[in-house]
Amino acid sequence: MAVLVLSEAEWAIIGLSLKVSLVAVAAVLPPAMLLAWVLARCDFRGKILLDALVSLPLVLPPVVTGWLLLLAFGANGPLGRLLDEYLGITLIFRWTGAALAAAIMALPLMVRAIRLSLEAVDRRLEGAARSLGAGPWRCFASVTLPLTMPGILAALVLGFARSIGEFGATITFVSNIPGETRTLPLAIYNALQVPGGEAAVTRLAIISVLLSLAALTVSEVLARRAGGGRAGHVL
Amino acid sequence: MSFEVDVSLRRGEREIAARFSAGEGLTALFGPSGAGKTSLLDMVAGLLRPDRGRICVSGTVLFDSAARIDLPPEQRACGYVFQDGRLFPHRRVRDNLLYGWKLAPAGRRWLEPDAAIAFLGIGHLLERMPRSLSGGEAQRVAIGRALLSGPRFLLMDEPLASLDAARRDEIMRLIERMRDEFGIPILYVSHDRAELDRLAAAVIPVG
Questions:
Q1: Is residue B89 within 8 Å of residue B69, measured between CB atoms?
Q2: Into how many domains does chain A fold?
Q3: Residue A194 carries which DSSP code?
Q4: ipTM
Q5: Residue span of the structural domain in which A138 resides
Q6: A128: chain B residues, CB-CB within 8 Å
Q7: Which residues sit opposite B188 in a β-bridge?
Q8: CB-CB: which of A127, A138, A147 is closest to B90?
Q9: Which CATH number does the domain housing residue A129 bear?
């Protein structure tokens, strides 16, 4: 059983992975909701293009996404220079960069889940709320948002799972730096390269399974509560 | 005049147009299914925007294309009872009832929740979720929700359509009492002549 005891460095990897994934999901939720809203509710020229752009990270090889991030946010990339000059922020080779990579990879899944759920909301209920005296924002907060909640929870779980498993874009964009960008999948990959690393791989793989299971369970419970006793399913 | 309506709206090939004014009590819009009666109610409620025209209720202009007036639905103070009830599925009956009441300015509330609950006989339903209600129960809650929002007028879209004969009679008696006890102008949609003979002070043919 000693083989299952985590070393301090492995605890740090788990902590880093959780930090990167949670920050990524939290940061990408507002834009994901906005994009889902625009795609579900608005009609405009170029909507197909926007839809395709949002979905791009889902179909591109993650390495390509990472390379594009490198081009944009690298030391000489246009966005990277802007961030450095005006805010003093560097993303490359930092855990924040890993979070950005994870966020970009999670975005399409999250937009999809929220959008489906938004499209399923009966818009006539919104009309009822408006006629009862609710302005557009209150209507959104008291009717649209609660009815979209199962989709938002699904988005959070999917986004978290995608983030915690992110590999290709992360290693390309921010490399594999211990303590800074070496998240769970990168650490597993690394341990596989080292002779005698099988025990570490086993431990980290078990942790991955447990984290994913925990995320699913928590979201199921939350969905059931949000559904007010309705049989709610997140995925 | 309670209702002064003169509107038109083109939807694809179809033209929905109506012009009428109506006095006190219950005014019925009568016509075959698909004639645009519900669309007319939606226009009065502000949920559907006419291409042109004017809507005025009890002296308040709600919509006037010439004067560029178009009050949003939340400012029209209308109690809308939808054909399908349209209760919020994620809120208990109590929270459905109080939704509009909480939003209404105190000065506009003319009915207290306790009085409405007693009037409609729905005290035993307050903790239930809407999906567990029968058609008649849901319709009574929907009427209560509309009345409690402090409306200056009521819009009722075939409130009896989804009910069996016994429930129809019960809700019809409720509507008669509402009309007589509260004295609130009601615009009522139906395609059932017998229903209107009993309820309506005036019948406006549509379509």
A1: no
A2: 1
A3: S
A4: 0.92
A5: 2-226
A6: 80, 82, 86, 88
A7: B28, B156
A8: A147
A9: 1.10.3720.10
Question: How wide is the angle at C-alpha A143 spanned by C-alphas B158 and A133, nearest 5°?
Answer: 65
Q: Does a structural domain hold residue A110? A: yes
Per residue in A148-195, pLDDT (tens digit) is: 998 898 899 989 999 999 999 999 999 998 989 999 999 999 999 989
CA distance B174 to B154: 14
* Domain-located, residue A233: no
| pLDDT reading at A96 higher than 60 | yes
Q: Is B206 left (phi over 0), alpha (psi -120 to 50) or beta?
A: beta
Q: How far apart are CA A235 and CA A41, in angstroms?
A: 23
Q: What does the DSSP assignment read for B4-51?
A: EEEEEEEETTEEEEEEEEE-SSEEEEE--TTSSHHHHHHHHHTSS--S
Please answer yes or no on whether B82 and A146 come within 8 Å at the CB atom.
no
Structure-derived torsion over alpha carbons of residues B87, B145, B95, A119, reported in degrees to the nearest 10: 30
Mutate to test the interface with A, among B42, B97, B103, B131 (most CBs of A within 10 A): B103
Sign of the CA dihedral with B58 first, then B59, B63, and B66 last: positive
Q: Look up residue A148 and give its amino acid.
A: T
Buried b (16+ CB within 10 A) or exposed e, B39-59: bbbbbbbbbbebeebbbbbee
User: Which of A123, A131, A137, A149 has the highest number of chain B CBs within 10 A, making it the mutation to test binding with B?
Assistant: A131
Q: Which residue of A has its CA nearest to B99?
A: A132
Mark yes or no for CB contact A130/B74 under 8 Å: yes
C-alpha of B81 from chain center: 4
Domains of chain B and CATH, by start: 23-47+72-200 (3.40.50.300)
Percent residues over pLDDT 90 in chain B? 64
Residue A2 has pLDDT above 70, yes or no: no
What pLDDT was estimated at residue A3?
A: 66
Contacts of B89 in chain A (CB under 8 A): 125, 147
The number of beta carbons lying within 10 Å of the beta carbon of residue B186 is 26
Residue B151 CA, chain-centre distance (Å), reads: 10
State the best of B83, B88, B108, B128 to mutate against chain A, taking most chain A CBs within 10 Å: B88
Q: Per-residue pLDDT tens for B105-150?
A: 998 999 999 999 998 999 999 999 999 999 889 999 999 999 999 9
Grouping H, G, I as helix, E, B as strand and the rest as coil, residue B202 is strand
